[in-house]
Amino acid sequence: MLGLGLTPFPPDLYLTVRQQPLIDRPPQSGVGLPWGVETRGSARDERFNQRNGLASCPDRADVSTAYCARGIRGVSDFEQVQRMDGSSVAAALAGRGGPCLELVTQLAGGEVGAWLVRWPDGHDAVLTWSPPLPAGQEPGDFDRSVELMDLARRAGVPVARYEAVVPLPDGSVAIVQERIHGHVSGVVSEELVDHAIELAEIRRDLLAGTAWPASAPTLYLLDDGPGFCLHGPLRAFSRDTAELLDAIEAIGRQPVTERTTDLVHLDYHVGNLLVTDEQPDRVAAVIDWGGARPGDIGIDLAILAFDLTWRAPGPVQQRVEAHLRRTTDADTFARLWAHASLRLVDWAIRHYPHDVDYWLAVARRYL
User: Fold this and answer.
1) Residue 50 pLDDT > 50, yes or no?
2) pLDDT digits (tens, 9 = 90+) for 30-48
3) Which terminus of the chain is more exposed, N or C, with fewer CB under 10 A?
4) Distance (Å, rounded) from C-alpha 335 to C-alpha 298?
5) Which residues does residue 72 pair with via DSSP β-bridges, in sequence order?
6) 3-state secondary structure of 270
7) Is the pLDDT confidence value at 144 over 80?
8) CB 229 within 8 A of CB 346
9) Cα–Cα distance for residue pair 36/271, rounded to 1 Å
10) Which residues contact 286 (CB under 8 A, 6 or more apart)?
11) What residues contact 121, with CB distance under 8 A and at least 6 apart?
């Protein structure tokens, strides 16, 4: 990272079209939820569920059933990203000659899932997994990601190291990441956001003068991305999402001439920024670099701006959005906003349809 024929939320739940969207609980979709953080079961979730005819703390199947009963397309209508089976991944990892890891506990949150694991020497790490992609889609280049992570680390970005990356027989990839003793901030301050912007700006033009050539950012505005930014769900889900897709693809057809030398994380949201109790307003580590690539650092800022619409709406979120607008021209800003809109709405359609209207409201501020 993220209504199509959906019955809209009650009007007091959000404001649409070029206004800051308001919602009665945080969305669960799109830019990802942090490991170890569980958003379901809160009082805000309970109020939302009661007002929208859903059972308490629905899982994906419950949501699909409830929405289909109301004439709304459910998550089962669209291809979903697989969840990680920790024991199977750990066994496959060992079978491929990788480390024999002890599963300690499953970590809450996350779109695919993660496990706290222990190496034979006793040190802990985090096991994650990249599921196989549909036929015809190219997998991520983890060798590229590791090289770019090292560049970011040397430039001063606090980066969690990859301790092992092992392709598995089914086309998926097991990733063992350094365990960082930090947590996701529950209160996002202006100081924390300023530090996140600073760490993004460190990566602007970071690839200039290296072996990495300047390249046009890949935003998937005309073609599907590798497991995200899919166009089909928006085209099929509702008239509203189809109209949004028309606007996104129209932007994608505009000629692009710029070439950038920025280092992009690609999933730069608060859930991937860890802090410590001692320094809650400073980023202790940036995690989940599997999508790292050359591109436009504005991608990371756009995803962060979308994420903050629900984590820290108002002045804190507006700091990122204002910075993005100051550092890009109007055409580039439109492309970046279109990318984030496609990404968040597609993910919500396929996994959390009750969030679609929220992300549509955010997208429509500029599209």
Assistant:
1) no
2) 454 333 333 333 333 343 3
3) C
4) 10
5) none
6) helix
7) yes
8) yes
9) 10
10) 152, 157, 158, 159, 160, 199, 265, 268, 272, 273, 274
11) none
